Amino acid sequence: GLYQGTIWQYRWFVPYDFKGLIALDGGEEAYIAKLDEFFARDLYNHANEPDLQVPLMYNVTRQGYKSQYWMHQLAADTVIQNYFNDNSRGIGSYIGKIYKNQPEAYLRTMDDDAGAMSAWYVFTASGFSPACVGWPVYYLNIPLFPSVTFRLPNAKTFKVEVANFSPKNKYIKQAFLNGKPFNRNYITQEDINRGGVLRIVSSAEPVKVSSTENWISSIE
Questions:
Q1: Minimal CA–CA distance to 186: which of 74, 205, 177, 148?
Q2: pTM score, two decimals?
Q3: pLDDT beyond 90 at 89
């Protein structure tokens, strides 16, 4: 057997080569279909880390809006969780929020190894999450707050603002970095270090046809 995860959960664990994974799956359409099945069957497990990156993995396709949906859903809304840290399935399945504003706020058996689950929430709530450990790249999503400010060295700040902020608005309609149109689904550490303002226009409806530049990991 597998330790603290299933074949479905571990099959995605190649964050350093999403391009290669898409090729192994038979192309983008087949890759998206497998992701859709994974979430439709509630196979995702947020009680442990092996598949923690999977909600971000639509970002390497033309359907990045699905990542925006799942990041918001998992951070703030009601979900179904069938799996827990002991690999149990169908034993006390949970329907509700993963992160709750109360003591013992996590899922049953939920690990927070080295602060991983807390960091996942902080990143998601702030509007960007690491695309892959080791790369200074972060995928964008709608923050859980109207604005978030990071204080940087040398009195600089980096601020993320949300236009049309609403808990119902899970999708990115447009983005602007320091007043200029921003046509990428990611920011870099260099963008953040320079300071400034990232303004995200949110929407209740996904942008299904987008010319946004996507970032994809590859070992090539």
A1: 177
A2: 0.94
A3: no
Q: pLDDT by residue (tens digit) across 14-68? A: 999 999 999 999 999 999 999 999 999 999 999 888 899 999 999 999 999 999 9
The helices-and-strands tally (H runs, E runs) of the chain is 6, 10
Pick 218 or 133 by higher pLDDT.
Answer: 218
How do the domains of the chain map onto residue ranges? Answer: 7-203
Q: Supply 71's token pair.
A: 């990041």
Q: In this predicted model, what pLDDT tens digit does every residue of 120-152 receive, in sequence order?
A: 999 999 999 999 988 999 999 999 999 999 999
Out of 3.30.2080.10, 3.40.50.2300, 3.40.50.1370, 2.102.10.10, select the CATH number for domain 7-203.
Answer: 3.30.2080.10
In 3D space, the residue among 172, 194, 193, 192 whose CA is nearest the CA of residue 183 turns out to be: 172
Q: What is the DSSP letter of 42?
A: T
Give the Cα-Cα-Cα angle 13, 76, 216 (nearest 5 degrees).
Answer: 35
Residue with tokens 């980096």: 158
For residue 215, the 8-state DSSP code is P
Structure tokens at 147: 């604005």
* CA–CA distance, 177 with 184 (Å, rounded to integer): 10
For 98, 99, 101, the CA distances from 105, given in Å and listed in that order, are 8, 6, 6
